[in-house]
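Q: Sequence in, structure out?
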Amino acid sequence: VQLVESGGGLVQPGGSLRLSCVASGFTFSGYGMSWYRQAPGKERELVAGISSGGSSTYYADSVKGRFAISRDNAKNTVYLQMSSLQPEDTAVYYCYRSGNSWGQGTQVTVSS
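A: Exactly. Output:
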């Protein structure tokens, strides 16, 4: 199992970013996928999840209405579209597949 995130960076408050996670080594369409984040000094938290077919999604209260998770099973990729970003969204964002499979993470920094 390999999960490779990309798309992080530095953005001003109110800005947007789209994270991508490309998966390999397993049948991507057979698994739900999630995004987690970990801010400095804090525990890793679940941000959003999506079912294997994409019909069902979950969002943490802190990101509802601002973030959108989606997937393209033909590309083995899950996305996290982040809008109206705030400094408290600053964290390392991780792609996750059940069975304790994690990506290496991508840093998102929201600062003016």
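The mean pLDDT is 97.
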